[in-house]
């Protein structure tokens, strides 16, 4: 264990680690109009001192940023200067600083730093001294956040004069700062209410001064990436000033924000009317993502002009506070409560508590982290606050200590040291990732264990015997299933990876594998992450199975796997560190291990996606022949979604009437409930899938009510107090009613002797007065749920985690803008007959020129839905590096002149990526960046031409011209290889836009590229692996199973 060093005076390490999901109170919007942006910020300025001191108006803005001084911008913000800066012109001469080329013009970024509500209340109710200190703390926090952003997130873009490729360079910012002290007005019971809410708008101009002295457009993506870290630093700095100057006591929250001690929840709620209004708007819109919440905030706000002239907000605030027991004296009593005004500390004793795998550590839910992640975590662990310099100094000390962290080194050039490679990476605006020595050792030990068993021949069955067994089944198996059975049984490897798409019949093949081994007297055991999946292995495949956690627990207690036996682990894509331990223990006990899963489905909750990493390194048996969905087109669009291309699915679902745009959340829930009743009445098995537990609860309640009204569920039943077992936590569900016909889901601890398995679904067929329920499962099996078993919930709607592995005739998907591709693929692949997707119509854009939603190309139908479904939140492991950095290399954008964008040479990043993967020879003579992007698409398995089309249209090229340009480039690449990759128009063109699907030649090349990447990754990890696995000699025996 390494202690956190006290590297600055007054900073010590101290006390009780706590779980802290990290978030800073900062948001970013896009200012897209010069006139509207200038009006929005300038009209808030007070016209007189009286307006300011009544909080009816604000002080003039102030300039910040190193580049602002270069332009002679100091002191107050004048409107004419502000307008010229937003317009990309020099404030004095009016000369252009640069030009906008994107289809959607973005003139500035509105970075808003907000204070906690209790601090705003202290300002509203305190005396002049308190108000002055609060404003000082706000200024200090906003300054620290801005300084952090300017140092780490300010990057410009410049064209290389030799190849005109776009490269990133350091930049300096021009920022206009506006302090606002009130929230938007809220009409409550016919009365207009304005709450105190101190926040600072840091309006960062979209043009910045680049390192070479020229001016150009800011690379805004970096601002978004570093926003949370900047917010956390600003919060810590604000706390530092408030504690030091006023002696206030603060209460830090698990998310890294804080509130002042002395205010009750009721008092904070009374002065949070705007927050409650925004949350209600978000709920009505059915949005849960961070971007969705920001859009809901804008969509629900009322005009400031609604406030009557002459209103004294301070007087109104004092009157409202008095009704809640807040008086000037009670506010003064908050001062001088904290005795340790000048001493600063972290509330953890060691760096491992911040970055380790224990609850709250950075590697608890992922294998790698970045410097900004560490900054956020450290800032959240400063209960009394701390200055930015101290936090960053400690972060750099932790990252530089090899006993604490291990950097993921980018691919090194010839003669380049690891340090030089990392410096080169940072200097180009790329982000380095880190892990801990413990995580790296575990994951590389797992890989080495699996690789060393490649030709172990632990359990190899004669191919003839296997083919005979397969032939006896006849046509019941698909070719993929037959290949899986033969591959697993005859493999000489000690670890076999099987990856199958949803609905490819993996469990059917497992049954035959189990039977072949059992007939030869081989011990076969199984495991899966959930009890329900383990029971499915037993019921449908005949494999004696337990949960993975239970199996590992037995092994840790001294039991062993049967030497020479077979272990079948299902749903492995959801396993993190447990998968690594399972691989190592299988080697130690001499058992053959078959890992089955689908890396396109839900990712591990803990750690990185090791299943995918193992498949990349070892190779995999793949199943892609889907048998679940009835319609062939349904299977095809789902496979496209699985590969990362959501457009075919969205467009076909729109054509088939399977996408339902509802006006608000209430109508969406009601529509889903009505459709559930209609489909169930027709005799279909139906499930509804939602992402958030709150949505599941609402869907269950409304759907059950509709089912009762339709006569599908009895009107009277029994009442039971229910609880939900979520991990190690028991969550109360309250008192629920269950009647005959109710759909139920078991959510308590598994009691196998009673047949009560967590995750099992059934229908109530009988009830007893004491609360006993008799359930019937889809397999017509009956079981009894006694009154003392509390883990019973309504089962009309499920989360995707509980639905993974389930199958129904019809699936109704409650869409979420916060869900990624993995979630959507799981939710939309559960059906046999039909799936339907329900969302809420898009929110209106803000009319005042500040947009918080992501930019959407309106020329593409339902592009927002496509973007949500294609977002990839895959979790890398340390084994994926340095290849995981490859995606940062890809910058397939046109030159600074869009009219010449199509003919620009490949970017430096594209060339480096292709060089590293041995694919430069794939480029035709006189190749452009479009040709290079096609080869890169093949390398990553993306739909051909996807990235090129996106960047061409973003640069202003009409979609049809972009499609033709990509088609020509595809022909060039195909000709250079002597083979065609152009499909017929039906599969290659959709809605007038080219979307080519890989043909057999494409698949062959993709397989070659994948094999090359696999070998390079394997060689790198083995070359850098200094931790040999422990070999434990076991005496022969049956062991577990």
Structure explained in plain terms:
- GO terms for molecular function: ATP binding; DNA helicase activity.
- Residues 1021-1041 are annotated as: Disordered.
- This protein is α/β, with parallel strands linked by helices and 1041 residues long.
- It folds into five domains: 26-340, no CATH class; 348-435, no CATH class; 441-623, P-loop containing nucleotide triphosphate hydrolases (Rossmann fold); 632-848 and 858-870, 3-Layer(aba) Sandwich (Rossmann fold); 908-973, no CATH class.
- Helix content is 40%, strand content 17%.
- A six-stranded antiparallel sheet has the order 3-7-10-4-2-37, sandwiched between helices.
- The chain starts with 10 loop residues before the first strand and ends in an 18-residue tail after the last helix.
- The relative contact order is 0.09.
Topology:
Elements: E1 11-13, E2 26-31, H1 34-42, H2 49-53, E3 62-64, H3 66-70, H4 79-86, E4 108-114, H5 117-125, H6 128-152, E5 155-159, E6 166-172, E7 175-182, E8 186-188, E9 191-193, E10 196-205, E11 207-210, E12 215-217, H7 221-246, E13 250-252, E14 258-260, H8 265-270, H9 273-285, H10 290-300, H11 313-322, H12 328-332, E15 344-346, H13 352-355, E16 369-370, H14 371-380, H15 388-400, E17 406-407, H16 418-427, E18 433-435, H17 437-452, H18 463-473, H19 479-490, E19 495-500, H20 506-519, E20 524-528, H21 531-541, E21 544-547, H22 548-556, E22 566-569, H23 577-589, E23 592-597, H24 610-618, E24 621-623, H25 632-642, H26 647-655, E25 659-662, H27 665-681, E26 686-690, H28 693-709, E27 718-726, E28 729-738, E29 743-746, E30 761-767, E31 773-776, E32 782-785, E33 792-794, E34 797-799, H29 800-803, E35 808-814, H30 821-828, E36 831-840, E37 850-851, H31 863-870, H32 886-889, H33 908-916, H34 929-940, H35 946-954, H36 959-977, H37 985-988, E38 989-990, E39 993-994, H38 1000-1023
Parallel strand pairs: 1-15, 19-23, 19-24, 20-21, 20-22, 22-23, 25-36, 26-34, 26-35, 35-36
Antiparallel strand pairs: 2-4, 2-37, 3-7, 4-10, 5-6, 6-11, 7-10, 8-9, 11-12, 13-14, 16-18, 17-18, 27-28, 29-30, 29-33, 30-31, 31-32, 38-39
Helix pairs in contact: 1-4, 5-6, 6-7, 7-14, 9-10, 14-15, 17-23, 17-24, 18-19, 19-20, 22-23, 25-26, 27-28, 33-34, 34-36, 35-36
